[in-house]
Amino acid sequence: MPLLPENNFVPDLESLDPTLLTKAKILAVNYPNNPTGKIASQDECDLLLEICVRHNILLINDAAYSGLLTATQPTGNFFRGAGAAAHCIEVHSLSKSLQIPGWRLGFILAASEIIEPLRVLGLLQESGQPKLLLDAVAGVINDQEISEALSECVAERRRALIDILAASGFSIQNVDGAFFVYVQCPLGVVDGAEFENAAKFSHYLAAEHGILTIPYEVSGQSYVRFSVAFKGEATVVFAQLRQKLSAVRFCFPKSVTL
């Protein structure tokens, strides 16, 4: 289902045909969300879970980016709602939260009656990772200072990126989630290029300014995702980005508040 600003980037399950909900077996969501950065509130989590419980749907939340949130960032928890034990699974990625891509490490949160068949399935289909990696990650998880330092680094970079994008007229959709920033595309450049879709704008940024983004088309609306996951000194990278974007005057849709 499309995640739209008018629905606060939460799937509008109530708008679905009731017969579809009756037939559904699984609802897969992703909060904190990629690419929007949306963090679901407790009320939003409770509503999604309540609908799943009512229709006997298993709710699976891909929580890969939850470990990147700082201690002060409020976030909902699907497991706080009534019926969560029988209807909820949450998947976590240590590759994301500890910034170790390629290690392919994570864990699942669920009630024991849900975990057990998943464990058996894993024994049949997975080979697992070397114990050396598992021990290393276990040590890091137990060191709260490391996780907090990584989260604060991501938050600081995200704030810097938001300031730069806002100064160039971009409307920031969400400001809290994960290591990226999701913005609506401009219509074009003043007295210059026009962007008929997100791919055109993303290509323009890469070809003309050396800025890499990921384009998204959602229900006729065009967005790109900027990331703060990069190598190099952050102050240097952001200074270069600010210089490149400030040299361009973009035209934005009238619906965007500047």
Automatic annotation (TrEMBL):
Q: Where would I find the Aminotransferase class I/classII large domain in this sequence?
A: 2-229
Q: What are the protein's UniProt keywords?
A: Aminotransferase, Transferase
Q: Which Pfam families match?
A: Aminotran_1_2 (PF00155)
Q: Does the keyword Transferase apply?
A: yes
Tell me a Gene Ontology molecular-function term this record carries. Answer: pyridoxal phosphate binding
Is Transferase found in the keyword set?
yes
Q: Which cofactor does it need?
A: pyridoxal 5'-phosphate
TM spans (from-to): none
PANTHER family according to UniProt: AMINO ACID AMINOTRANSFERASE (PTHR42832), L-GLUTAMINE--4-(METHYLSULFANYL)-2-OXOBUTANOATE AMINOTRANSFERASE (PTHR42832:SF3)
This protein's name: Aminotransferase class I/classII large domain-containing protein
